[in-house]
Design brief:
Helix content: 25-40%
Radius of gyration: 21 Å
Oligomer: single chain
Shape: globular
Number of helices: 9
Distance between the termini: 52 Å
């Protein structure tokens, strides 16, 4: 049996960053990743936005972690020579009835310490000449990065620090004792003093493997994007967001200029038919049935069935 001080399950950004902050000491650290490489799921499949903390309730963990995490991420990129941009984003109210919500968002962002400016239609056109609205927030410090590149660099630094990353290794079971955690994996048995779960969409399943009840179940939603044609990419300079509808649990379709210059429109919010269902044709009946049977999902569906059908 292999023995470590800390075993981290999940080789995405959270797992790798956790290992990075714990490394550099005498601790023996192991990262277990079920795929052939790191960051193949949520960490490598996103719009790349470095959020400034506009949307989160002041004083909440999300607000605090968004602010401190953004600063730490940008510092890491600067130290490692990883390209990122502070292109800024506009949150645009397109009708008068959206202005009160925009003002509430502004107050929340300012309480979180976000640098932003309330602008009118003329200033909006100066920032984003092809965006039209009655009012907007100009969030100067929002940026974009390639998170898969960050994950790959973290993995390199971990290897240099003696952290072992085992890919193609899935946790299949385990138990906790008074002094250690024993894991059963497809690579073989592992014993660790501490187990840290960073398993993304499988976090609830991992908890239950060790007899814990997380109190929630993860239901997968897939965000789909369309790319503007190259001859149209000049229409968007940075990021253009709508005013979010507080009655719906998504931020809405927005336009994002990525670090490569491609402009993406999206995401949608479609129920995935599998936990790793990145296409409409990916269907795992048992996982879909699990989602549909979950009371939390049924409550969400009843509340938003019109929006869901759309």
């Amino acid at each position: 049996m292999s023995t470590y001080d800390i075993a981290i399950v999940g080789g995405g950004l959270v797992g790798l960053a956790t290992a990075y902050h714990l490394s550099g000491s005498e601790l023996r650290i192991l990262v277990l990743e079920k795929e052939a490489a790191v960051a193949l799921h949520q960490s490598g499949r996103n719009s790349g936005v470095i959020h400034a903390g506009v949307y989160y309730r002041p004083g909440s963990q999300k607000a605090r972690l968004s602010r401190t995490g953004k600063a730490a991420l940008e510092a890491f990129c600067e130290a490692e020579g990883i390209s990122f941009t502070r292109s800024g984003k506009v949150v645009v109210a397109v009708t008068e009835d959206e202005i009160p919500r925009l003002r509430q968002l502004e107050a929340r962002a300012r309480a979180n310490g976000v640098e932003l400016e309330a602008v009118g239609p003329e200033q909006l056109r100066e920032i984003e000449p092809h965006a039209a609205g009655v009012a907007a927030l100009w969030v100067k410090e929002t940026g974009v990065v390639d998170f898969a590149t960050i994950a790959a660099r973290l993995a390199e630094r971990l290897a240099e620090r003696g952290v072992e990353i085992r890919t193609n290794t899935q946790v299949t079971g385990g138990r906790e004792s008074a002094s250690a955690v024993d894991l059963e994996t497809t690579y073989g048995p592992v014993r660790a003093g501490v187990l840290v779960g960073c398993a993304g969409l499988w976090a609830d399943r991992l908890a239950r493997l060790f007899g814990l009840d997380p109190g929630v179940q993860l239901v997968p939603f897939r965000g789909e994007y369309a790319a503007l044609r190259s001859e149209a990419s000049h229409l968007v300079r940075g990021l253009i967001y709508p005013v979010p509808d507080p009655s719906f649990p998504f931020l809405g379709v927005h336009l994002t200029r990525t670090v490569t210059g491609v402009v993406e429109a999206g995401p949608s919010a479609a129920l995935a038919f599998a936990r790793e269902g990145y296409t409409w044709s990916t269907l795992r009946p048992s996982e879909l049935a699990e989602s549909l049977a979950y009371r939390g999902f049924r409550q969400l569906a009843r509340r938003h069935w019109r929006m869901g059908l759309g």
